Input
Amino acid sequence: MIFRWRTGLNRFPLSVSGLCTIMVLAGSFGGAAQAQLQAPFTEVALNRGIVYATGQATFGYGVSIVDLDNDGDLDMVAIGNPNGVVGIFRNNGSAHFTQMPVDPSTPRVMTASGVAAADYDGDGDLDIYISATGGTNVLLRNNGQLQFTDVTSTAGVGDPSGIGYGVAWGDMDNDGWIDLFVSNYTQPGASPSRMYLNLGNGTFVDILDSCGIVDFGMTFGGTFFDWDLDGDSDLYVSNDRCGTGQGNRLWENIGGTFIDATDASGSGACIWSMGVATGDFDGDQLKDIYITNLSFQGNKLFLNQGDRTFLESSQVAGVESFEYGWGAIFFDYDNDSHQELFVNNAFGPNKMYDHDGVWPSQEIAATLAITEYSRNSFGVAVGDLDLDGDRDLVISNKNERIRVFLNQEGQTRQWVRMKVEGSGPNTFAIGANVDIRTGTRRQTREVVAGSSYLSQDPYTLHFGLDTATVVDEIQVYWPGGKTRTLTNLSSNNTWTLYPAESLGDGDHDGDTDIDDLPILAGCMAALSFEPGCEIMDLDGNGSVTGDDFSEFVRRYNGPFFDCDANGTMDSLDIVGLAPGGGVPFGCQIFDPSLGGVPNGVLIAGQPLILGKLGDGGVRLEWSHVCDGIGTDYAVYQGTVGNFGSHLPLVCSTGGATIHELPETGGNRYYLIVPTNSVREGSYGVATGGERPPAAGSCYTQAIASCE
Output
């Protein structure tokens, strides 16, 4: 029995007459006219520091664009240079690249073909696997700062007898450790494809013979994707020349072993299959499959019908191509919320099929200025290299330089990116699915590691939003069945989607404790919800409020002290030490009832940290509200954990006092410290113009004098 996460996804049947009507309308005033208005791509590789030429391998090379140094922008891994050097290029955030020096210990891969990066050891950064058509495949462990160590032999993934092509990572058994499928173009005397099971200790074991997959030979690639939406990674395999008569196969994952679902699903193709693209091409939230082929047969498009079957629809969709196709990929180049299809060709121009929601698609590559330098193209990857809100193209041409086409469409429509935080050692959430809704428009994406032909796209998921400025609903589905629903995320931002168990842990140390409190306070004090505060949005409503604070208290596992002596450990009683063992926070409460500015109640002689303040700052009132005797205080401004090196901004000596505190900037905060330089007394503090607490809220203070 198939467990379905989503309901209502079956497609509605179309009559033949209705389909013809749609095709006539599309041909009359559809995507072709719109395409003329789109800004083109610009080829910039040399100007941006990408100087890397490939060799003459018959079946070309792949390319990967991922964030190797975790700095928020996309770096590049290029392979195929005749001298075997692996090109690792660091992005400075604006699509200007620097090639990193080659470590002498890094092997040269003279017959490199495919490349994909994944965090196989669960340490939070991406490691690189490179397949080779002769000799040994290579696994490079990321040491940080774009430095790598060859761990191929230790890991047991070299496969020196294989003719390696496609590389795909996925968690086949949902144990959290990322497994590896390597496609071998099997011929007499060569090893079959490999399914490497990750043992979680830095090593792998090949289980192809025992996991249910049958190798039919001449395999160019495999792609992990969840075609049936049941929470695990299935595998689609592309076999050249009909792979000893068996063609492409769809392997359905059943609890970590695979069964052949090809015939029952109608997804088989007995062709000269090369590249494979998976994604939702027709916008019904179901995963479709596109396969490149030889020119005389045409490429194939299998549209998912939602009933565990596919329908071959390349002619209806207008994407047969009839070229010598290789890499292919679905992506929304113009941010209109509909995915387009880009196809690399070896002996003809590359193609871009513009899809505006109706068939047939319109081929517009020449209009977009991306046919230049084509006719010898194999690997392709897409991602936002310059962080301007649209996805750029990187193409690996045989016997030529890597080409980079920057997309100029970013200023014309809205977009959003979703970075899914993994759970356990699957740190990059490979296999996770994200559905979004803007109004009535719905879209879906999946985190895939190894795609198209020999290549890899980024882990962060990109959605074009057309004119929508808010994503109304986001549903996240992690491998294994965990889910979460969020709402009200603004456009033109990159949002991190955390699993429920990570929420509240602002410093990512595995605990929800006192060190996370300043982060929560800062997010509550902010004038708007911004990236960086997602981990404190515990109820997922696109804001950080008192409700999130209440949930934070429920999760809090730091020390408690009943400082108001009411016999109950509650939100007023969170107490502990500042980061680095500094001044104690004391009992604190943050209440964003005044337009997002927290009201602080200072209790029992302990200091209070107020978060970053904007819009003119905050009014601080300090008065004799309990016994009629004024209390001294000092106000410091600094960074959390580093107030001691700053002189006080304000130093008061008794009586009713009012001070206007200016806005803070950057990551600076206010620290308010009561003193006893005059006499021991009582005090209260309020912000945002509210009067100080009532007499019943005042407590005796006892802290060193203001000096």
